[in-house]
Specification:
Helices cover 6% and strands 57% of the residues. The strands form five sheets. It has a 13-stranded antiparallel beta sheet with strand order 19-20-21-22-23-24-25-26-27-28-29-30-31, with no helix packed on it. A five-stranded mixed beta sheet has the order 2-9-8-4-6, with no helix packed on it. The termini are far apart. The radius of gyration is 42 Å and the shape is flat. It is built from one helix and 31 strands. By secondary structure, the protein is mostly beta strands.
Length: 468
């Protein structure tokens, strides 16, 4: 049977039309699905951050469809960047939007450059219909180096050679050329660096060794310090320093020194006025007596009195003091202090001693005023205990002889732990003569914006402490 030409032509026309209609329907459906969700960052498309920082940003996801949508998200980050808090799936109502916060930990090794963060959102039912928002993170160049001391011998014999070890680290995010220098407190020692220049990759560490040749036959034991400095070749303002200290012991054939050096300064003055003229000699000095240098001796002798002849002269003064980490001892002219209700501060001639052992302090004093015509005399002591790092309690005793005698006993507490202020409370009683009581309250506060202080003092007529 023959087909008619008209039937064949009609079929050939309809087939392309049907295919085009199907393709158009698929295209419009895909376009409708891809436009169901929109995503945009809440900040500028390019942000600045530094290595090691936690970057927090936000993306706004909006449902453009006429029905609720379950949404899945994926965050695509550069390698080794870590997502601090995951973004779980969520549901958006029709026309609703939601702010999604993300936090990224940027590695300290992140190199200089610009990085892309891709936030991908898609309906849960059709993951292929996803949309993407891109946030670009700009990392600047970081230049920083660190140098730390690792190891040194504690003691060496004079004339020997020892090695001190350090570690140099490039804490920047770009390769760096670093220059090294070593210097000792005694330039006569020979110091050798294994390397004076190094090239380190970002956050690379390398050992630095310094060899020191000591002088032979040292007469006494002493401490020798070596300072090592590292700086960038491209920028000398970026540098780091570390030190090592070693005790140098005398050799077996060394002769120990019999004397200790103590610096002294001598001064001569001449002055006068209508009451006459005269000379004055002064000898002063201050220095350590031990090899370690942990103590201090102070000396002052000034005589005769020149202030009585000229207002430009000095009064005669005599003082000898010795201090260590736990002991303080003085003899001569000085300002003697005990507590506000006993002796708050009197310049006189006498002696004092104070000993500190961890949380306990014991002190004693005795003096006689050289300048007042009554020449009052005092003797006393104190025992204090640190209850906490910021609170101290003490008991004080003072005997005073001046136109009658008095014996004063006080209890005092000081604290700096109450609302970041300093509080001082002291209660005293005078047991000599007319027995009477006294009370002292003091409060101070210091802040960035200023400071304030308040003091209250009450003493009975029979109390013969400092304020009466």
């Amino acid at each position: 049977m023959k087909r008619s030409p008209s039937s064949t032509g009609l079929r050939s026309i309809w087939s392309p039309l049907v295919l085009l209609g199907i393709l158009a329907a698929i295209s419009s459906l895909a376009q409708a699905r891809s436009s169901d969700i929109t995503v945009r960052p809440t900040v500028e498309t390019v942000v600045d951050a530094i290595p090691g920082q936690t970057l927090t940003s936000g993306f706004v996801v909006q449902n453009m469809s006429a029905s609720d949508l379950a949404v899945w998200t994926i965050l695509e980050t550069p390698k080794s960047w870590r997502l601090v808090v995951a973004d779980p799936p969520f549901t958006l109502g029709s026309g609703a939007s939601d702010l999604r916060l993300i936090s990224l930990a940027i590695p300290v090794t992140a190199a200089e450059g610009e990085y892309s963060i891709r936030y991908v959102a898609a309906p849960a039912e059709s993951p292929a219909d996803s949309v993407v928002a891109i946030l670009r993170v700009r990392i600047p160049a970081v230049r920083n180096i660190a140098l730390r001391h690792v190891d040194s011998p504690g003691k060496v014999v004079s004339g020997s050679t020892y090695t001190s070890s350090f570690v140099l680290t490039n804490e920047g995010n770009r390769p760096s050329d670093i220059r090294l220098q070593a210097k000792g407190i005694d330039t006569r020692f020979a110091i050798h660096l294994e390397a004076t220049q190094m090239q380190l990759a970002p956050h690379e560490s390398r050992a630095v060794r310094v060899r020191v040749e000591t002088l032979p036959n040292g007469g006494t034991a002493y401490h020798y310090r070596v300072d090592v400095t590292a700086m960038l070749e491209s920028d000398s303002t970026v540098s780091a320093q570390a030190s090592s200290t070693v005790q140098i012991l005398p050799g077996l054939d060394a002769v120990e020194a019999r004397y200790r050096d103590f610096p002294l300064l001598g001064t001569f003055r001449w002055g006068g006025g209508q009451d006459g003229t005269g000379p004055q000699f002064e000898l002063s000095g201050s220095g350590a007596l031990s090899n370690e240098g942990t103590d201090r001796l102070d000396l002052l002798v000034r005589t005769p009195d020149l202030q009585s002849h000229s207002i430009l002269g000095h009064r005669d003064e005599y003082r000898l003091g010795y201090r260590t980490e736990t002991l303080e001892a003085y003899a001569g002219d000085r300002n003697f202090v005990l507590s506000p209700l006993t002796e708050y501060g009197r310049y006189a001639f006498g002696a004092s001693v104070a000993y500190r052992d961890r949380d306990v302090t014991v002190s004693a004093l005795a003096n006689r005023d050289r300048f007042l015509w009554t020449h009052p005399q005092e003797a006393g002591g104190s025992v204090g205990v640190n209850l906490t790092p910021g609170t101290e309690a003490s008991v004080n005793y003072l005997y005073r002889q001046e136109a009658g005698s008095s014996q004063i006993v006080t209890a005092r507490m000081r604290s700096s732990e109450i609302f970041r202020t300093e509080a001082d409370v002291e209660l005293g009683r005078d047991f000599g003569g007319q027995a009477d009581n006294a009370l002292s309250l003091s409060w101070r506060v210091r802040r960035e914006w200023g400071s304030a202080a308040a003091t209250y003092l009450h003493a009975g007529p029979g109390y013969r402490g400092y304020y009466t």
